[in-house]
Amino acid sequence: MSKTLPNTKSAEQDVAHALSRVLQAALPMALCVLLALWLLGSVFTARGAGTAEGFGTFDYAAFGAVPVSEDGRVKPLDTLARNTLLQLSGKQSLVEEMLLPGEGDEGRPAIVWLAEVFAQRPEARQRAVFRIDDPDVLGLMGLTVEDGKYFSMDQIAPHLKAIEDQAQLALDLPDDERTRFQEHVIGLRSSVGLLFELQVGLRPHVLPPTAEGEDWVPLANPGTGTLAELNPAAMDRETAVSWAELVSAYRADDPGAFNSRVKAHRRLVDGEVPDKAGKASFEQRFNAYRPFVKSIVLYLLAGLMGLLGLLFRPMLSPGWARSVWRSGVGVLVLALVVHTAALVVRMWLQGRPPVTNLYSSAVFIGWAVVVFAVVMEVISRLGIASLAASIVGVATLFIAHNLAKDGDTMGVMQAVLDSNFWLGTHVITVTLGYAATFFAGFLALLYILLGMATPVLDKKSARLLSGMVYAVVCFALLFSFVGTVLGGIWADQSWGRFWGWDPKENGAIMIVLMNAIILHARWGHLVRDRGLMCMAVLGNIITAWSWFGTNLLEVGLHSYGFTEGAMTKLLVFAAANLVVIGIALAVPTRMWWSFRPKPRPTGEPRSPKPHPAG
Amino acid sequence: MALPRSPYNPLTHLASLRLTLVLLSLSIVLIFVGTLAQVDHGIWWVVEHYFRSLYVWVPLDVFRPVFWPGRETPWDVSFIFPGGFLLLGLLVVNLIAAHAVRYKVRAAGGTLVVGGVCLLVGAGLYALTVALPTLADMIQQDVMLMLGIWALPTALVTAGAYLLFGGRKGGIVVIHLGLILLLLGEFVTGLAADEGRMQITERGSSNVIMDVREVELAFITPAADGRERHVVVPEHLLERSAKTGEPIEHPDLPVSVSVDGLMDNSELRTTGFAGGDLRTVDFAAQEIDTVSGTQADRSDMPSAYITLRGGGETLGRQLVSVFEVVRPIAFEANGRPWRVVLRFKRTYLPYAIQLHDFRNDTFTGTQVARNFSSDLRVVEPGGSAREAYVKMNQPLRYDGKAFFQAGYLQHPLNRNTGTILQVAENPGSWIPYLSCVIVTVGLCGQFGASLFRYGKRTAAQGVR
């Protein structure tokens, strides 16, 4: 530090200097304290936020916490509302297009819509909650793309017969022979069916078991499929009455009665299944807190600060450079805290290890990369590991957000996958392998981009970064190899076949081989830093393929929902990485901005040695 | 210890690290195209042609699912590519040559002796765990126990390798030893492993294992004391007859058979229905695409049209199929009744397995399976019996075989009328477990050492 002090004895400058040191220390602290206050404060406001206020005096928050059983899992109505609306419209709340005249333009939570559906209120039929993109499906209903994206039950109802006929024709075909139109018709039909089942009381299973060995049951009789006939199994359950009362209070637009009936119903359910009710209530608060959205915001902020800190480092005094670096890392750590808490809460709610499906793998990969990065950042203090982590954090949580459109993100597990031991060992290890390979790949991307387009990657940083990529690849090989072999052992334990060459296994072994290639090339001095980076970027493509490509092959090409067009996104990602590799190989390193031979400083002889990257 | 490293020594070239990289890269490409090929072909077909072969002709069409969604007109252009066996074989040669050329034993004197003894004792203990039959059984049953038992020999082997080859290369030697073991395991599996399926109806019993990858044509006639005599024509003979048109003849066969068409996968349609009894429905079969690897949980259902000729008269062209709704062909020859069926290839066990009860639990309000389980009883010919309970992730291990819960038989009218067990037999199944332990220890040792060095270097540079 001392050598960077301005060499002066003036008192004014001393004061200015002391002041700037105080500011430098205060900036990261103030920023982190403010953000931490925001995060903590939202915990207490989460329940009310966006649920109760401003939409009449109905206590939607209390209603949203009512536990029900749906798709084999007990969850709060709030989760059901969000997931169902997401499946129909791709949105988690009522957006402007779904509001009715006179409701203003402020969005409303999904639970409002679900209450209307249960109560069979006219608004439920008038809200445009069905998203239809396919022009041919719109044509079937006499509409065009100019009529918008969202349509209501009232608009669809006259064409139900035509939709049903077309869907039946399509369902008779094998999956892989259906056209895009037919896939969309089937999708629309199942959306309509879903809404119908909610309205008549077939879904969800709202009545909790009253004795050992009993199960949750729906209100309507599954045999006849209408509310006209009450489910015989529901007859003697007290909760059937309280539920019916709260629904009719809502239908009668009587907030006072509704709010007291909700309380009464929840008391009854809490008495029957206290554990599940407690979890459901917690899950509703978790939903309202939106931890992953908060993490995305924090990652973006950390990334921005990291990028600015890197680019302007040459212009900043060392003190300020460190202050900005600390702020960026502080924000990253806060984001990691929220991310970790959300991961732990999901594990507790589900009673399972963190990775159980594609959605949770995205959440976990992002988390693992940030953990690796924080460790690396503390060792290296370059600001590059945290920048890479911010990028991966935002990207994976964004991917997870899109994957959530496929349904409940905490759904039940198929029997053969239902093994917490293997989910906790094989799945975690192999996912850590994905995460480490991505981390190495993104570090390498930053090496190439920063090295070429900026002057910030000096000799020492370049050497440290290359050592970091090497270390991360080592871990990637360890995790991907052990994870892959554990997968084989699971398969051997579950169906007696260690290795079957199926697409998912092949994807995993490709990652192992790629990491092995990188390490062998480096050990044999066959590549230098530039080659190492290009190979690590190649690892990005292979990992993305293993993660998504193999799933895309399995579900076929005409799948509905997020996976549609996902192959194109995968190809764009691969192409972008290939372009970076191509440019990195085409431009000799002495022409990279960071590695350009410096003009000879006076008094120092020019170093005869070449720069480290080659 | 190491051989001289000169350009005249052919091992130097075989040991080249460049060769390793080329082979590993080619392996990645092979696995990628082998994955894509599963969109069009069954997984076993791909394994045979891509992974257990010396070379493979890869059609350019395999890339179309990724890059061109429309796949109506095939391009019919192929390129040749090295197969899995070739790449694997060369990798093993390359690895062994590399160790012969580049890995010097650095130890001398006492270290050499101690290292050598560690290595030998470790290897001996491994051999002991595997050779003792009771221990091998225990290992099969309990993964954690196995890890505990292998801890000591693994520690010895690792210590030996580090003592002999030094801190920088010891870990690599251990890793490569484990990898060679893993490849050896796959080799043993390829040669000796077998798998099939067993179907048992509720309150029934079975001693038949079916291999759904292969069919056979069975001629069945009653024999003495209530038994049956089965004369079986294997699939390769059926295929040859289908190709050449020549009839199959054998002294044990009552008639000669010619195969007019053999369909690897087929679907049935009804052609005639006399009314009343469902058993009078007539069927025709038509060939459909074989099940591809990406369509999980389905298997090919072969059918064939055959002509039987005996004593100058022909019984005409008739359908045989693995679909059970197709009735066997019945005829008489030399005064004995015969029936002919096409069925999956069978193997018979010397004991029978009875099914008491099969349970299929689903999650509330869904069709998602929560658990399948079967109450079984293994009955030996002598009369001794053993009860067993099999469910997902919990197989019955008996007679060197493992019986896994794989699915259930569903009668069209009533539910859950039987169980389907996957039967696997693999004498080398423990090898990957051991290999995993060894490689993991080696990787941890190697990377732990690098990380330590990296940390020391970084600290020495004193960044900021």
Topology readout:
The complex is a heterodimer of chains A (614) and B (464).
Chain A: H1 11-45, H2 60-64, E1 67-70, E2 73-76, H3 77-89, E3 93-94, E4 108-109, H4 110-118, H5 122-126, E5 130-131, H6 135-140, E6 150-151, H7 153-156, H8 160-171, H9 180-200, H10 238-251, H11 255-272, H12 274-289, H13 291-311, H14 318-350, H15 358-380, H16 384-403, H17 420-453, H18 459-495, H19 503-523, H20 529-555, H21 566-586
Antiparallel strand pairs in A: 1-2, 3-4, 5-6
Helix pairs in contact in A: 1-14, 3-4, 8-9, 10-11, 11-12, 13-14, 13-16, 14-15, 15-16, 15-17, 16-17, 17-18, 17-20, 18-19, 18-20, 19-20, 20-21
Chain B: H1 10-14, H2 17-36, H3 43-51, E1 55-59, H4 64-67, E2 78-82, H5 84-102, H6 109-131, H7 133-141, H8 143-165, H9 170-192, E3 194-201, E4 205-222, E5 228-234, H10 235-244, E6 256-263, E7 266-272, E8 282-287, E9 303-310, E10 313-321, E11 329-333, E12 336-362, E13 369-379, E14 385-391, E15 396-398, E16 401-409, E17 418-425, H11 431-461
Antiparallel strand pairs in B: 1-2, 3-17, 4-5, 4-12, 6-9, 7-8, 9-10, 11-12, 12-13, 13-14, 15-16, 16-17
Helix pairs in contact in B: 2-3, 2-5, 5-9, 6-8, 8-9, 8-11, 9-11
